[in-house]
């Protein structure tokens, strides 16, 4: 396969309601979409999950735009690859970081190859699942009652897991209130780095609430302190921000820093790294699940295809389009069954959705076309 043209677009898409995590709030997404075209005219879209500000990882949509234009695109445009899995090595050689920028194009190469071969993307990645269980991620609320109402509504909708964003001062009482209202629900907390080991008493209080896991309580790039914490908790620690490559997943296991991994393909540089982490975790008895970054329906297609791999055994942050947007930019929009599952597209070639190109053009605030 050979990438011939790469168009970048920034679109603005307002969220139905603002989403707050411990490290920041967003009300409107700035989304970087890539349009990849090969020498025969086959084309596909992919999405960069970098945020508006560097509060999750160091990358932002602007750094990713620059990295793709300056370094990612020149390495792949006009280059013949036997398989999309080979793009990862091309992008890693003497090119540090910028995982979300790399992933946007690397995943697009997988998407493009699925279109070229006429197979569903899930099949190309080796996925076996027909449906993937879905969880919801609830932002930080002003009061426990508001959170309880949202959690109850989510369980009634069929969600198989409720993830509660926490921060100091909005943690134990909030999670406890949800636990009281929903004694049997699969609940978890995600702190996005809001704590340190000095907060051990708070984290130990969460430990008593029967959570499936506590996600990334400590620093965004930490493994050592999480290992100390995991030894003090019964609840599994799940790492998100800290896992940026296969090697970091291996380090997590070697150090005992956590027992579950949230795989976001954007965070680890794309599908090749995601599959390697998935396979490694499977060999170690570590369950994984697919995280989300408030992607549009384009990015969602990649996450759902990846999450069809067998060791994605826990519910993923793969909410339907209507949870985020008044109207998504793909057709059909993503939905969830009453049983809380997303159906993996397995009948048509490619992503299983069609980007609404007219609407995307209308939402575009900047664009550039790159050629070999
Ligand atoms: O930590 O998982 C996270 C969104 C933005 C940044 C970080 C995170 C999240 C989510 C969103 O939890 C989950 C979703 O896309 O539904
Ligand atoms: Mg997280």
Fold and architecture overview:
- By secondary structure, the chain is an alpha/beta fold.
- The protein contains 14 helices and 15 strands.
- It has helices at 61-76, 87-92, 99-117, 121-125, 144-157, 172-181, 200-207, 224-232, 246-255, 265-268, 271-284, 297-306, 321-324, 357-363, and strands at 3-21, 24-38, 43-48, 131-133, 135-138, 161-165, 187-190, 214-215, 237-239, 260-263, 288-290, 330-331, 341-343, 354-355, 364-371.
- It starts with a strand and ends with a strand.
- The mean pLDDT is 98.
- The structure holds 2-succinylbenzoate and magnesium ion.
- The site of 2-succinylbenzoate has 12 residues, from loops.
List the helices and strands and how they pair.
Blueprint: E1 3-21, E2 24-38, E3 43-48, H1 61-76, H2 87-92, H3 99-117, H4 121-125, E4 131-133, E5 135-138, H5 144-157, E6 161-165, H6 172-181, E7 187-190, H7 200-207, E8 214-215, H8 224-232, E9 237-239, H9 246-255, E10 260-263, H10 265-268, H11 271-284, E11 288-290, H12 297-306, H13 321-324, E12 330-331, E13 341-343, E14 354-355, H14 357-363, E15 364-371
Parallel strand pairs: 5-6, 6-7, 7-8, 8-9, 9-10, 10-11
Antiparallel strand pairs: 1-2, 1-15, 2-3, 4-13, 12-14
Helix pairs in contact: 1-3, 5-6, 9-11
The protein binds 2-succinylbenzoate and magnesium ion (MG).
Magnesium ion binds next to loops.
Task: State the gist of this model.
With 372 residues, the protein is an alpha/beta fold.
